[in-house]
Amino acid sequence: MNPSILRWGILGPANVARRNWLAIRLSGNGTLVAVASRDLARAHAFIAECQAHSPFESAPRALGSYEELMTAPDVDALYIPLPTGVRREWVLRAAAAGKHIVCEKPCAANATELREMLDACAHHRVQFMDGVMFRHNARLARMRAVLDDGVSVGELRRVTSSFTFAGPPEFFGSNIRTLGTLEPFGCLGDLGWYCLQLSLWAAGWRLPHTVTGRLLATHGGVPTELSGELVFDGGLSAGFDCSFLLHNQQWANLAGTKGSLRVNDFVLPFAGDETAFERRGAEFRRQGCDFRMEERVRRIAVAEHGHGHETAQETCEFRHFAAQVLGGTLNPAWPAIALQTQQVLDACLASARAGGQPVVPG
After folding, report:
1. C-beta atoms surrounding 276 within 10 Å
2. Which helix (H) or strand (E) holds 157?
3. In whole angstroms, what is the distance from residue 191 CA to residue 163 CA?
4. 30-36 and 61-63: which strand pairing?
5. Of the candidates 106, 134, 162, which is a domain's last residue?
């Protein structure tokens, strides 16, 4: 292994992998060596299209089977965007082959399955991380500093978030996110994972003591609209909703005893050369019969691009992962975060399927 460059392979040319092709190219400490598909022509087409848009100095090679990527001696790490229903087998095989892993979410069909995957990674001394990009941007670190200053928000008491998009009619007939054999969590896994992880981050990576979920719509038994509630010790609660039926939303609000933080694009930052959030408050005034509420808003901006740039969150994600691996040590927090999120996800769906009965995660 080159001590300054991590050599990547992509296991399955999914559409989402195009974004991470660019992220690897811009990372500065990674290069893409190979793309594997069970259809060799599809791998060639994927490489040709991505290379035309964002070329590596040497084009990655196309492989016609996943097994070839597992045994490739010049591949150090894998990005795995395979469907949840088939992911376990290939994470276990990748770990046994000594490949470090960035795994799309949801990571597994349930927490028991994910524990097996993480145990295999630990046994074979490979790094595991789920593919949640916003954890790696500079805005989240700035939000943490404001939350913790004791003045801007005070005691954090409530987190609310929403991540939705309206799928067209054909989405519900052919997209794998609505097929229970491949993506059994539906919108909860595809969108709710981000809301849950933001809530856990806000809570300092504590598990809630109870979780409830409400199924609002399904397609073939797969959740297409769902809301949930997390209750933590110490008075903190978090609510969220996720949907394949509502127009694009990706907002979050973190409210406390002295104010709140509002971010309108917490998953996929809006295009531009900065990301931002707001510190919000209000002051009520009365003069005689005149009752007046005055808004107090301060916009806090961070110098980082929303997408497709060296400072963008997806680039930072792959840069941080490569730096960890190249540094020769494993980060135990990353797999622990994935497991926590999976445990709460499982509990939320179990509650929803039981008519909203509270469930203890883990």
Report:
1. 16
2. strand 156-166
3. 6
4. parallel
5. 134
